[in-house]
């Protein structure tokens, strides 16, 4: 059939003509949505007007390769040593590990620090020096018994009477699941686990507890679908709703949102955990929370920089996306800043107590293209990006989520429907709410203590922090003389879930 004959057949059939018209409208609608998802609103673009150049990256890389930034480099910025004991849940991880290193750098003895975690530290920077002398207790905080056992372990008699600070950084990160059907695991670790930590901290005599939550709590789900005519408006509303958001703490001062008003189960669980910690604030146990802005990075195990480095091939539709990030060093310092305020016995009534603070790097947000350019330019391992169109991935994500939910709702289907393997199983609609323009500010946390802030200032810019991570990546591979891979926090969460389902940690 020729094209002319095909068109004549369509025009001669009203039903076929209507079907073709509907298909054309749907395709046009999706194409327009795709155009918008590939764009950047002007007010967001103005927040990040310049990109990292090859010259800037080269100068930064050479400087950090010659003189890496370590805890001793910024020891003047770490709050002074306190005569206290410390329990750090999640102390083997990213933020918790940097808290341990900073405590040691400021002079705390290894004997006064205890890491409580699912697994012992494996970070290269914690494998030598005083960090080797830090006590480790394996625990599963989703179990009240396991948590209590770790907190009640006897201390050295000479330390027993020292006051106790708890830094609660342990959590599981599951960024793509959003339904209550999949909520049990996040709730068990992030919500009930936090309650177990608060309860055990009280019984252990702790008088300060600072918890790591997440700025992703404030993220609202992106709503892609809107009236077609609104997509062609010349004003801001043409963008999908919540396509660009500010990461702040305004939600904390309002009633806790409904589950479906969070973009995924992870932020819903962290919001509930945050309320538990902040509501526990009292004269005998002063509490507060730090919300690291969106992606936390600073070690090859992180998802932001380590994820692309470990994958070698990075399928992406986010090169143009502008976001704020925070290095684990900066997030850790914010925790110690908070502790310095809460150690005062009358601090429970201060404006800082019983509330969260958002923390980000001390610079404007960047684009993912900056990060990809850094890795392509300097990583000694292969790296390439595969640029994808966002709208087809959105549509595919609904299919993957629907398939996964079928297996959950009707387990008998597991006999005929195999589980989805590999990273593609995380491609679900929730993921797209954190692949949008997300910007944070240090305006509140950086205010002087007398003005209700923490007096926080970051020590690493995103340029320095990400470049140094690539420097460290190259150093590890050169020293090993072979390919080295690291487990991400997302895959660690999967490991913890399997262990929990199998009986957990005693």
TrEMBL record:
The chain crosses the membrane at residues 6-31. Belongs to the 3-beta-HSD family. The keyword Membrane applies. The lineage of its organism: Eukaryota, Fungi, Dikarya, Ascomycota, Pezizomycotina. One of its GO terms (molecular function) is oxidoreductase activity, acting on the CH-OH group of donors, NAD or NADP as acceptor. Residues 87-217, 255-378 form the 3-beta hydroxysteroid dehydrogenase/isomerase domain. InterPro entries: 3Beta_OHSteriod_DH/Estase (IPR002225), Lipid_A_modif_metabolic_enz (IPR050177), NAD(P)-bd_dom_sf (IPR036291). The keyword DNA damage does not apply. It comes from Cercophora newfieldiana. GO terms for biological process: steroid biosynthetic process. Pfam families: 3Beta_HSD. Keywords: Membrane, Oxidoreductase, Transmembrane, Transmembrane helix. This is 3-beta hydroxysteroid dehydrogenase/isomerase domain-containing protein.
